[in-house]
């Protein structure tokens, strides 16, 4: 019997956890993190597999917030590619969410294949589905703010190759509530305006989606994930400096940039450390040597046919639209769905 601790609660395989509207038998521990644990369970009343997220006791309010958001999103049709919410309940002081059972995260999938890059038709198919999800969030003025490969789930890779759904709305927020100074998004997937503590909106999700695409294309993160200074260094080298109005607006600009005779320059590592108290970490990403997004193609299978070369050009062009340093110039989900890279209709083959 397997036993796992979630704060003061112990969960065991074959245990039954229950709430006011259902009982669920634990069959498998699917994942764990700072939030708590996720278990595959069987709904005793229907005999259907479900996923139950068991939150740590101190995260009850955040989990209730996620339940509220998912309940609102549950009105959307299944083709909007957002995880289906079933119910929520409290069990021994821990708030639990019941959702549809999905296969594995994009990160786990890439890890199992030793981070071998995906091909462009596969990346296109995944990206298109996520754009549909973000288009719906945009209509509702919702921002996910935590997109990364861990929060994109394959539905059933064997039956439906690369069909995905967006999960984890624990820190999602409405656009109107996004105030400068909120620490959102994982480092490496964090939009420049978030790092600068400048004004932000739903465009932060599009930045993160561009980072997810790069991860699938390269088999590693485009921007360093272990150090925000290194991340900003690579961003400015590859994509250029934030615009002056962003830098003037940012409450945290001085941590990364200094104004020298009216011109902004990136701080030296020692200056960043002095201002923030954080040590600049060494970085092993290939991208530390990149000077443009075109450099990514060096680390991907080279196109052979004219059609493949055109597809590669469209991909790089699309990435430039996604990774605009100025959020006002960043492509929206609606426009992204019309981009030539996305509108091609190649679907990945079913796995044998």
From TrEMBL:
Respond yes or no to whether keyword NADP is given for this record.
no
Can you list the GO cellular component terms from the UniProt entry? cytoplasm; PML body
- Pfam families, per the entry: Pkinase (PF00069)
Q: Is the keyword rRNA processing in the record? A: no
The Protein kinase domain, residue ranges: 24-342
Q: Which GO terms describe its molecular function?
A: ATP binding; protein serine/threonine kinase activity; protein tyrosine kinase activity; SMAD binding; transcription coactivator activity; transcription corepressor activity
Keywords (alphabetical) are: ATP-binding, Kinase, Nucleotide-binding, Serine/threonine-protein kinase, Transferase
One GO-annotated biological process of the protein: intrinsic apoptotic signaling pathway in response to DNA damage by p53 class mediator
- Top-rank lineage group of the source organism: Eukaryota
Which InterPro entries would you find in this protein's record?
A: Kinase-like_dom_sf, Prot_kinase_dom, Ser/Thr_kinase_AS, Ser_Thr_dual-spec_kinase
What the entry lists under SMART domains is as follows: S_TKc
Q: Which PANTHER family match?
A: DUAL SPECIFICITY PROTEIN KINASE, HOMEODOMAIN-INTERACTING PROTEIN KINASE 2
Q: What is this protein called?
A: Protein kinase domain-containing protein
What's the source species for this entry? Mugilogobius chulae
């Amino acid at each position: 019997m397997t036993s796992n601790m979630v704060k003061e609660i112990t969960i065991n395989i074959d245990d039954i956890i229950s709430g006011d509207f259902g009982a669920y038998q634990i069959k498998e521990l699917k994942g764990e993190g700072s939030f708590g644990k996720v278990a595959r369970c069987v709904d005793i009343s229907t005999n259907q597999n479900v996923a139950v997220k068991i939150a740590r006791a101190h995260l009850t309010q955040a989990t209730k917030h996620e339940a509220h958001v998912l309940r609102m999103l549950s009105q959307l049709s299944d083709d909007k590619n957002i995880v289906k919410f079933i119910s929520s309940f409290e069990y021994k002081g821990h708030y639990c969410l019941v959702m549809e059972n999905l296969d594995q995260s994009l990160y786990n999938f890439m890890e199992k294949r030793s981070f071998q890059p995906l091909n462009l038709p596969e990346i296109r198919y995944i990206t298109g589905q996520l754009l549909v999800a973000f288009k719906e969030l945009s209509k509702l003025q919702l921002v996910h703010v935590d997109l990364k490969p861990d929060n994109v789930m394959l539905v059933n890779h064997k039956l439906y190759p690369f069909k995905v759904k967006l999960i984890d709305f624990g820190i999602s927020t409405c656009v109107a509530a996004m105030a400068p100074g909120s620490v959102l998004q994982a480092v490496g997937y964090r939009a420049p305006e978030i790092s600068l503590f400048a004004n932000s909106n739903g465009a932060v999700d599009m930045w993160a989606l561009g980072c997810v695409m790069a991860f699938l294309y390269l088999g590693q993160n485009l921007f360093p994930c272990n150090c925000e200074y290194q991340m900003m260094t690579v961003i400015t080298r590859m994509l250029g400096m934030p615009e002056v109005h962003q830098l003037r607006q940012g409450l945290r600009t001085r941590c990364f940039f200094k104004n020298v005779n009216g011109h902004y320059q990136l701080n030296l590592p020692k200056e960043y450390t002095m201002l923030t108290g954080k040590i600049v970490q060494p970085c092993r990403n290939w991208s530390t040597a990149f000077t443009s997004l075109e450099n990514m193609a060096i680390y991907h299978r080279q196109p052979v046919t004219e059609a493949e070369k055109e597809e590669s050009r469209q991909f790089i062009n699309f990435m430039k639209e996604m990774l605009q340093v100025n959020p006002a110039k960043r492509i929206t989900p609606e426009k992204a769905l019309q981009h030539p890279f996305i509108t091609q209709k190649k679907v990945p083959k079913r796995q044998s």
